[in-house]
Amino acid sequence: MARSAPYRIMGIDPGTNYMGYGVLEVDGRTLRSVVLGDIDLHKLADPYTKLRHIFERVGALVDEYHPRDVALESPFFGENVQSMLKLGRAQGVAMAAALSRGLTVSEYAPSRIKQAIAGIGSAPKEQVAAIVCRTLTIDRPLRRLDATDGMAVALCHYFTATSPLAAALGDERVKGLGGGKKAASKGGSQSWEQFLRAHPDREIK
């Protein structure tokens, strides 16, 4: 059987002060860290200047590293509505930059990413960072955890896309926000429960 060509996944952890990113290369069953870092936004006072900088930097990273897929952490639901709004805008602009390059974009809830990496949805950022570094043999200490958070999103996307459940679902597209599934057809989004009702043969008992 012919070996599949290597491909890259870019993971993004949206933020309004620092936006973490990581590019993961997949070659068969071998995973390699291509680059990880963060986009520094904390010195930009004007919110619209920040959004423009995010769009330009994410687009430049896509052009430089040529990922096949881009995965983002979805905004968490907190009590501070203004913070949620700012974070949602940052995520949306990063998503638009990837979409403008014709890439496939996915998003995952924070707890789902932690579950995929550490096995528990409430794992601390430090534990996630340690597992990411150990998995990809990253030795150098990182100034901030935003970069490993970005790489964690890329790893979560890889683990999700290569899971037996994903294979069983065929063309069903993973929708990380809320943990449901989003159909690739014109049917729109549907919940996991709705999918099982429509496809009872897909449920593993």
Overview of the molecule:
The protein has helices at residues 47-65, 81-99, 110-118, 125-135, 146-161, 164-169, 192-198, and strands at 7-13, 18-27, 30-40, 69-73, 104-108, 173-174, 181-182, 189-190. The protein is α/β, with parallel strands linked by helices. Strand 4, helix 2 (81-99) and strand 5 (104-108) form a beta-alpha-beta unit. The radius of gyration is 17 Å and the shape is globular.
Summarize the helices and strands and which ones pair or pack.
Layout: E1 7-13, E2 18-27, E3 30-40, H1 47-65, E4 69-73, H2 81-99, E5 104-108, H3 110-118, H4 125-135, H5 146-161, H6 164-169, E6 173-174, E7 181-182, E8 189-190, H7 192-198
Parallel strand pairs: 1-4, 4-5
Antiparallel strand pairs: 1-2, 2-3, 6-7, 7-8
Helix pairs in contact: 1-2, 3-5, 4-5
Largest sheet, strands/sense/barrel:
5 strands, mixed
* Distance linking N and C termini: 32 Å
Low-confidence stretches: 169-196, 201-205
- How many β-strand runs? 8
The ordered string of helix (H) and strand (E) elements is EEEHEHEHHHHEEEH
What proportion strand? Answer: 15-25%
The quaternary organization reads as single chain
Quickly count the helices. 7
Alpha-beta content class: alpha/beta
Q: Reading side by side through the largest sheet, how are the strands ordered?
A: 3-2-1-4-5
Index terms:
three-stranded antiparallel β-sheet; 205 residues; alpha/beta; disordered C terminus; globular
Give a brief outline of the structure:
Helix content is 42%, strand content 21%. It has 205 residues and is α/β, with parallel strands linked by helices.
